[in-house]
């Protein structure tokens, strides 16, 4: 199986060969269709922003769909901290988006998928259906509602217990290599560890303990935008 270092080399080679596609705004992109690899590093290019990752995970736990709550109550030298531009672009005029991943997997609105996936593993450690579905058919009516531009990027994540480890397979519709992968992989690592911990609590003294295992990343379209070409090295 490919690893992050292989994916990194693919984009380096594509940039050198000047093999580009054009995004809907007319900018160049380098892409990989049908990417599948072991997510064994937290970044493909650049370094994770741990401060932002903490804020995003905290925001996901609030289940708020308003981006103004990402840095709620936090300030910098310019005053109240603003949400990242990518979220501002995705939000409608009121700051609402669809992709609060905590709401998608924790809320009763979407059937508390996290709780159900853990319960499935507790009931059957060999199960192949401990799945949390992030995207939904109704996204076709919701992605541009009232000025939004937020067609959920993660399709689904499924968890497997093998050899006393919990592994997961992340399936994505679209993933930006630079910001998207770093933040999404941090979230998936966080949830994987949570699944392992909650499984151990539910099965204490009944079964062997498990630990968080591998994350397998499958992306329909993995890409780097032209503005980040300088990071491809």
Can you walk through the features of this model?
There is one protein chain. With 233 residues, the chain is α/β, with parallel strands linked by helices. It has helices spanning 4-17, 50-62, 85-90, 101-106, 113-123, 139-142, 180-202, and strands at 2-3, 21-22, 28-38, 75-76, 79-80, 130-133, 154-162, 165-172, 175-176, 211-225. Strands 1, 2, 3, 6, 7, 8, 9 and 10 form an 8-stranded mixed β-sheet that branches. Strands 4-5 form a two-stranded antiparallel sheet.
Give a brief outline of the structure.
Helix content is 33%, strand content 24%. The protein is an alpha/beta fold and 233 residues long. The mean pLDDT is 97.
Radius of gyration: 18 Å
Main beta-sheet strand count, sense and barrel state: 8 strands, mixed
The helix tally amounts to 7
What portion of residues belong to β-strands?
A: 15-25%
Number of strands: 10
Instruction: Give helix % range.
Output: 25-40%
Runs with pLDDT <50, length 5+?
none
How far is the N terminus from the C terminus?
Answer: 22 Å
Q: What is the 3D form?
A: globular
Whole-number average pLDDT? 97
Order of helices and strands: EHEEHEEHHHEHEEEHE
Keywords for this entry:
alpha/beta, 10 strands, 233 residues
How is the secondary structure organized here?
Blueprint (H helix, E strand, L loop, with lengths): L1 E2 H14 L3 E2 L5 E11 L11 H13 L12 E2 L2 E2 L4 H6 L10 H6 L6 H11 L6 E4 L5 H4 L11 E9 L2 E8 L2 E2 L3 H23 L8 E15 L8
Parallel strand pairs: 1-3, 8-10, 9-10
Antiparallel strand pairs: 2-3, 3-10, 4-5, 6-7, 7-8
Helix pairs in contact: 5-7
């Amino acid at each position: 199986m490919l690893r992050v270092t292989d994916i990194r080399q693919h984009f380096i080679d594509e940039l050198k060969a000047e093999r580009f596609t054009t995004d809907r705004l007319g900018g160049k992109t380098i892409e990989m269709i049908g990417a599948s690899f072991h997510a064994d590093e937290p970044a493909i290019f650049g370094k994770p922003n741990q401060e932002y990752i903490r804020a995003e995970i905290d925001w996901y736990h609030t289940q708020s769909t308003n981006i103004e709550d990402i840095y709620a109550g936090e300030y910098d030298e310019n005053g109240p901290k603003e949400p990242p531009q990518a979220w501002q672009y995705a939000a409608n005029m009121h700051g609402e988006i669809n992709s609060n991943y905590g709401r998608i997997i924790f809320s009763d609105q979407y059937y508390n998928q996290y709780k159900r996936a853990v319960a499935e593993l507790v009931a059957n450690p060999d199960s192949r259906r401990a799945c949390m579905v992030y995207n939904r058919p109704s996204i076709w009516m919701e992605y541009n509602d009232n000025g939004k531009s937020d067609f959920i990027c993660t399709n689904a994540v499924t968890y497997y217990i093998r050899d006393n480890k919990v592994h997961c397979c992340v399936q994505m519709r679209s993933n930006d290599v630079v910001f998207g992968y770093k933040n999404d992989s941090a979230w998936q690592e966080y949830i994987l560890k949570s699944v392992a911990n909650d499984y151990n609590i539910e099965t204490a003294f009944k079964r062997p303990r498990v630990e968080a295992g591998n994350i397998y990343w499958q992306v329909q379209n993995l890409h780097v935008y032209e503005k980040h070409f300088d990071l491809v090295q």
